[in-house]
Amino acid sequence: MKKIFIPFLLLLVSATSLFAKDGYKIQLKLTDMQDTLVFLAHYYAKPLPTIYKTDSVHFKNGVATFLNKEKITGGIYIMLMSDHKTYFEFLLDNGDDMSITAETKKLPQGLSFKNSQNNEDFLKYSAFINEYGAEQQKLEARVKTAKTKEDTLALRTEVTANSKKLTNYRRSYVKEHPGALLSTIFNALETPQIPEGKHFLEDGQTVDSMYAYHYFKVHYWDHFNFQDDRIMYTPIFDSKLEEYVKNEVYPYPDSIEYEAKTMFEKTRGTKELFKYTLSWFSTFAQESKIMGMDEVFVWLVENYYMKGDATWLDNESLNKFIDRAMHIAPNVIGNKAPEVKCVDINKQEHLLSDVKAKWTLLIFWSADCGHCQHEIPIIDSLYKAELKAKGMKVYAVRTEGDETKWQDFIKKNGLTDWINVYDPENKGDFRTKYDVYSTPTIYLLDENKIIRGKKLDHETIMEVIKMEERKAKMKK
Fold first, then answer.
1. Which pTM was predicted?
2. CA dihedral (244, 248, 251, 253) positive or negative
3. How does DSSP assign 178-210, residue by residue?
4. What is the pLDDT of residues 209-251, one digit of tens each?
5. In terms of DSSP H, where are the helices of 190-292?
């Protein structure tokens, strides 16, 4: 295919079953190219442009042979021309010995296979999907031009009925070729079909408004083979996993941890699927903007990395994970806030634990920080307008910078009602205790100095307080 990427063509592959030997032999003939370099590449969980080159051959007179005697992981592979724009996809599995003829200017139509019934099936599916796609586009165009509500509903019914052709094609193939790679791919792409009609709660009268959500979530992975590493060499798993976690799972640490543990149990024993799943959840936990996801990262490190499951990491890389988790662990939400001992401008000592308040806002900031110069006055306005009335006190720690500038900023912005302190001799180690590597860093503590919110700003402080108040009300 030249310069054009159509997602559904990634699925146009077929399967092999039993292998007589390891590796592959691919005789490739390019009818419209003579001397060129061609790369053999494969997907790894993600779609283009994420591909990995595994082999290359320099063509002479348009003919060359790819030969490898080492065992490979089957999947969707790519023949990529030297311009890095022209390519075609095909199925390759361990032990395959096939011939491919390609006319690069007419891809994917200018493609044929010998000694690979599986890829011939791929071409048949390609023809079907092109016809199916054209029918769907025509129906969607008619929906857009429908003049009445009745016409729109009728056409939508046709669209739904036509979509079942694709589902039936895949399911029929899976039934005829169980265990084949194409069947594994079709099963991985299967999405739950919500049973039609109304669904009621146990009383038999109240409509269950959450039925569709729960059904979809419970059956999302029904057909996915978590023990077949070949699915990793397709562009399916990453997007499917991301859709599930971000759209179907409640964004709370315990919910994410439950789903992660379930998937680790399903993928355990595989090489690629387990590795990618653990790595994916680790990255998600570290990069998520959702408050509290760092707890998930600590949980992953303590229960998997530190117990020897990340076998692909060297000691240096593993220690980086462990070190990062150790910095986060003391200040995850729900933990008792570590003690902070600082002094004010008069060198009078103030302990965080001595602050008596229903809520304590713990702020690490610097008058030299541009973001602090913007955020701190806004937080003070919020404090005076709403937070103080809720029984809040502010314990504000200067992290660095000139002392005079710090005092001037406090006076200029009227922060005199705050407990303004610093650690002149750097004895308290607050940076490590509270993971303070940027400013402002803001924590919300309850009356027992339990961390209820972290990495907050003026827009989220009140949201967390209201959420905690709702929790308390529900408990009562």
1. 0.84
2. negative
3. TT-HHHHHHHHH----PPSS--B-TTSSSB-TT
4. 999 999 999 999 999 999 999 999 999 999 999 999 999 999 9
5. 211-219, 237-248, 253-267, 272-287
